[in-house]
Amino acid sequence: MSHASPSAASLVAQLEARARAANTPAELAFSVANDTLPLLGFRQALVFAGSGKQARLQTISGLALPAEDSPYLIWLRRCWPWMQQQVGEAGGWLPAPTAGGSAPAEADGPQMAPPPAEVLDGWAEWWPQGLYAVPLRRRDGVVLAWVAFLLEKPPTVLQQQALAHLAVQWGYCWEMLGGKPRVGMRQRWQALGRKRHVLWLVLALLLVMPVRQSALAPAEIVALDATTVASPLDGVVKAFHVRPNQAVQAGDLLFSLDDTTLRNRLEVATQSVAVADAEWMAASQKAFDNFQSKGELALLQGRAQEKRAELAAVQAQLARIDVRAPHDGIAVFGAVDDWLGRPVVTGERIVQMANPASAGVLIYLPVADALVLEENAPVKLFLTVRPLSPLLAHIAETSYQASLSPDNVASYRLRATLDAPANRDDARIGLRGTAKISGGWVPLAYYLLRRPLATLRAWSGW
User: Which PANTHER family does the protein's record reference (predicted)?
Assistant: First the structure.
């Protein structure tokens, strides 16, 4: 800086002080783009963070925040990599390009390759006669940013020396404010050297390492030994005499059906039997002296027997409106309010009598997660109430055909039996959770790529 005038040296010192006072790279870029106007008298200054195609416009002189969607900035992002290539790694003066690709005669800049048409159109519309670019480098020489000044003529030698001096200071401040540089994955991989071969070998061994296939599916504790208690006749549920999941003994009253209709039918049938008996008795008395009454006697007797049969049928139905437990167990059904007043038909399941000593696991395995299961495949059941204490079980039965699960997902129904008696003490009928089903042994690569390959095959039809 010995060749600079006192005013220029003072200005350079001020620019250095402002650079050191910046707290972030954004503040430093703002100072570089705006505070250098007295030194160069440029039309516009641009600061790019990064280099090449990864360069990102950081600051434009005179603007607090550039609008990313403006036509000017869109053109600038597209054309800056070409301009940076023309000035080279050291930076310098780049005159306005011409259609022939050479610099103007009065310019001492380098000869350029034919520029793209969009560079010519945008430059003619927005930029002056030339561009002076300065790279900001880290101490190891890596370019951190670029500063571009739009000028009507090339800067003088003194201005170029001042910019070269400031570029060193700006690069150092940018490096300090930016913190430790991030090393990309590609650079880290190349830095490993020969260790990369060892990593490839380890990765190959991991991919062929055998692992056990597994799938997660919703599950529920159910009774493997359960008796269905169905409605004995058509009717309406009148009352429940037990609560859901209540322990009952054989003969205990479970529920009752409404008897209003049957009571009315019983009254009508009783009266019909009385009338039929009266007609038969009257015909029997007339049969001694009336031949016609004697002929009707068999018909009236058959009608009386028919009415008695109807009365017996109604009485039998009335005896079945109170349904009792067939054996000891737990009454499993939904809420009582869901059944009261609900019409039922003969054979419709209302209650299940479950044996608490025969608790098992009902699993709904989605078709998309289906595995090739071996006999007695192991299962781990993680109950919602005890997620850290899995219950051990093994598959005892699988469905041949898929059906809709309670969640309306096409699934296979699997039944599993609990292994240890201690597990059965913790498994209360009705508890839900997630079952982990283990299949056969396969390489890790197949385990990781099975679902993507199945999806790709379904999509491509291979």
Answer: BLL5650 PROTEIN, EFFLUX SYSTEM COMPONENT YKNX-RELATED
